[in-house]
Amino acid sequence: MSALASFVQAFSAGKIRVVDLTQTLSPEFPHISLPPEMGQAWPFRIEEVSRYDERGPAWYWNNFSCGEHTGTHFDAPIHWISGRDLPQNATDSIPPERFIGPACVVDCSRESASDPDFLLTKKKLLAWEKQHGRIPPRAWVLMRTDWSKRADPVAYQNYDETGQHTPGPDVDAVKFLVEERDLLGFGTESIGTDAGQAQHLRPPYPCHYFMHGAGRYGLQCLANLDQLPPTGAVVIAAPLKIRNGSGSPLRVLALISSG
Amino acid sequence: MSDSVFRSTRKNPILRTRLPTLPPAARSRVALGLTAAAALGRFELQQCRDCGTVQYPPREACGKCLSVRLPWTRQDDDGELLAATVLHHSNDLFFRERLPWRLGLVKLACGPTVVAHLHAEVPPAPAKLRVAARLDRAGQAVLVGLPDKENVNMAEDRQLREFACDPKHRKVLVTDGKSGVGQALVKALAAAGAELVWVGYAEPWKRFPGFDELQKLPQVTLVPLDVTDSKNVRELAAEIGAKVDILVSNAEFHRAHGIGNRQGVETARAEMDVNYFGLLRLAQEFGPAMRARGADGLASAVAWVNLLSVYALANFPPHGTFSASKAAAQSLAQCLRAEMRPAGVRVVNVFPGPIDDEWSQLLPPPKLAPGALAAAIVSALREGVEDLYPGDVAQEWLERWRDNPKALERELSS
User: Fold this and answer.
1) Are B217 and B333 contained in the same domain?
2) Is B196 helix (H, G, I), strand (E, B) or coil?
3) B229 touching A, CB under 8 A?
4) Among B258, B254, B306, B252, CA closest to B412
5) B210 shares a domain with B280
6) Chain A interface mutation, best of B179, B201, B203, B205, highest count of A Cβ atoms under 10 Å
7) Is A154 in Cβ contact with B205 (below 8 Å)?
8) How many angstroms separate the CA atoms of B301 and B295, rounded?
9) Distance CA A216, CA A223 (A)
C-alpha cells in the first residue's frame, strides 16, 4: 500500500485527529500595534456586501480587509530585512513542501504563567531534547505558553507603559535552533514570534532577525498547542499565495495520532 | 421656576413616542441670510449700505430708499418689549403640540419692530430684553426674546429648549474618550448636567492616561468603540442607540503629512477610515434611532456634533491628507444634516484650528486647549450654534475664507 493510501486508511479509521491551531479572524481579535508615527498593519475588518436583500437577493457575502500579519499568520523570510535578499523568501516563492512539517512542542506554559516576560533558553531546549529526543531537521518548533487562552484582549496584549509583555525565545535559543537544529520555523501563541520586550534584546527581535535571515519561517497567534503531543504532530501551514508577500493569515492544522 | 419641568425625565414607556414635527421651514433665499448668521451664533440683519436703515423682515430692496445693497450686518441685541401674548391655539402641527406658546412684539434698538418667541422670564411689556437669532428645529433662524439679565436656569425654559440642544438632563455618547479633547468633552458635558455619558474607547489593550479619572465620574460608562469596525458600531447602536440624545463624533486620526513627504496611501487611508468612514458608519447606525426620537419629550434626541477641522475649508498642505479627510467629513456632515433635519435633530459642525495635542506639536501657538474646545462645544449646544469655529485661529481662517477663498488657498500654501 502506498504511503498516501495508508494515510487515508488511518484517517478514515479515526486514527488521525485534526487539531485546529487557528484563532478565529474577527475585528475583536487583537492586532499588532506599532508606535503611532509608524505605518500600521490593518486589523481584520469585514463589511457585508449583501445578505439575501436588495443588495443581492439570493446570496450572502462579505468583503474583508486585513494586513498580511493579522490573526493566526505566517511570517516569510522577506518580512525581515535580514531575509530580504534570500531566494524563495516570499509567500509565493517558498516551495510548497515547506508548508508541511513535523512539530516539536515545547511546553513553557508554567513559566509563562508566572512570568509574562519569560524567555525560552537553549538550556530549556536541551532539557526538552533529553526527554523527547533530538529536534529533527526541518521541524516546526512550537512554543506552548497557553497565551491563546487569554480571551480578554487586554490580557492577551498585556501592555504597560513599557510596552508589551509576552513570552518568546532568547537570542541563544534562536541561534541554536537555526544553526544547530536546522529547524523549519518557530511558532508562538502570542502576537509575535519574538517576546513582547524583544526590542531590548541584542540584536532586537532575534527570532525575526536570525530566523528570517536564515530563510526560516514564523507562525504566531497559534491556538490549541496544549492539545499537541511534544513530538509526533504534523503541521500543515500554507500561507496565501500573495505575490512577494511577507506573510499571510492562514488556517494552521495539526495532524496527531489518536488511539 | 424652570427646574420643575425636569423633576422627572424618565418617560412613561407605555405611551407612544411622539413623532417629530417641524415649525414652518420655508424661507426665501434672501431670508436665509438670517439663518446663515444664526448658524454661527450671530445676530445680523440687513442694513442698507446707502441709507443705513436696518430692516426686518428680509427683503430684496431697502424699504426706505430701494437700494439693493443690503449686506447682513451684526446688530446690537437690545430692544424693548412692546406687547406680549400667549398662543393657546395653532393649526400648525409643531406649535399645536407645544401650546401654550408665548410671543411678543419687540422694538429693536437698531430700528425695526419684530415678532419674537418670548422666554418665560421676560417680564410683561413694557420691558427691556435681548433679542437673538436662533435656529429652530427646522434649522431656520427665528428671533427669540431673552431676559435682559442672564440667569443660571435660563436654558431650562421650555420654549428656549426647542431652539437649543442643551446637554442638561440628556444622554450623550462621546465616541472617543482616549484623546485629550475626548476627555475634556466628557468632563465638560458631565459638568453641564448630562445625565449619562457613554465614552467610547478603541484598542482597549492600550491603556490611556486619564482612564481611571474618567471612570470615577458617576455619569460615565465606558464602552468599547472603534469607528473603523462596522460590526462594533452596529452592535453599540443596537444596544444604546435608542437612548442617545446627543452624539459627539470626535474620534479622529491625524498625521502631519502632505502628499510628497509620506510614501503610499496607508496613512491617508487610515485618516479617511476614521474621519470619513467612521462618521458614515456612525450615521448609518445611530442616525435612524436618533431620528425616531426627535420629539421624545424634553430630553429628546437633539444633536449630533462632528469634530471637523478648519482645514476642511481649505487645505493646509503640511497636514494635507488630514485636511482632505476632514473636507470629506464636512461634506458628509452636510448630507447628515439634511437627513437629520426632518427629525429636528441638529448637526453641529466644529471647525477648530490646531489643537494643542501631539499631532500639532510642531505648529506654533496659539493652539486650542482641549478644555477650551470642549467648553466651546458645550456653549454651542446650549446656544443652538450649528457651525462652530472655536478659538482665534479658526475665527481668523473663517473670516479670510469668507472674504476670499482663493486668497486663503494661496496664503496657506506659501
Assistant:
1) yes
2) strand
3) yes
4) B258
5) yes
6) B205
7) yes
8) 7
9) 21
**What is residue A129's DSSP assignment?**
H
Please tell me the total count of domains within chain A: 1
Strand partners, B350: B307, B388
Per-residue model confidence as pLDDT tens for chain B (414 residues): 344 455 456 778 898 889 999 999 999 999 999 999 999 999 999 999 999 999 999 999 999 999 999 999 999 999 999 999 999 999 999 999 999 999 999 999 999 999 999 999 999 999 999 999 999 999 999 999 999 987 767 778 889 988 999 999 999 999 999 999 999 999 999 999 999 999 999 999 988 888 889 999 999 999 999 999 999 999 999 999 999 999 999 999 999 999 998 899 999 999 999 999 999 999 999 999 999 999 988 789 999 999 999 999 999 999 999 999 999 999 999 999 999 999 999 999 999 999 999 999 999 999 999 999 999 999 999 998 999 999 999 999 999 999 999 999 999 988
Distance between start and end Cα atoms, chain A? 21
Report ipTM (2 d.p.). 0.92
Residue numbers of the domain that contains B146: 20-157
Contact list in A for residue B228 (CB cut-off 8 A) is: 43, 45
Same-domain status, B88 and B214: no
Test mutation, B178, B201, B203, B263, chain A, max A CBs within 10 A: B203
How far apart are the two ends of chain B, measured CA to CA in Å? 56
Residue B113 cell numbers, joined: 419692530
The Cα–Cα gap between B273 and B262 comes to: 17
Q: What percent of chain A has pLDDT over 90?
A: 98
Interatomic CA distance for residues A109 and A106, integer angstroms? 9
SS3 A187: strand
- Same-domain check for residues B386 and B293: yes
Assess contact for B284 and B339: CB atoms under 8 A.
no
Q: Are residues B304 and B396 in the same domain?
A: yes
Burial A208-237 (b: 16+ CB within 10 A, else e): bbbbbbbbbbbbbbbbbbeebebbebbbeb
* Domain CATH for A159: 3.50.30.50
Q: At B93, which amino acid appears?
A: L
Q: Do B241 and B383 reside in the same domain of the chain?
A: yes
Q: Would you say A187 and A177 are in contact if contact means Cβ atoms under 8 Å apart?
A: no
By C-alpha distance, which of A224, A242, A255 is closest to A145? Answer: A224
| pLDDT tens digits for range B179-198 | 999 999 999 999 999 999 99
- Count of structural domains within chain B: 2
Same domain as B368, residue B298:
yes
Whether A74 has a pLDDT exceeding 80, the answer reads: yes
A7, A236 Cβ separation under 8 angstroms:
no
C-alpha count within 13 angstroms, C-beta hemisphere, residue B128 = 5
Q: Per-residue pLDDT tens for B257-283?
A: 999 988 999 999 999 999 999 999 999
- Domain range holding A252? 3-30+68-257
Residues 194-223 of B with CB under 8 A from A: 203-207
Q: Are residues B240 and B357 in the same domain?
A: yes
Task: Provide the shortest C-alpha distance from residue A189 to chain B (in Å).
Answer: 17
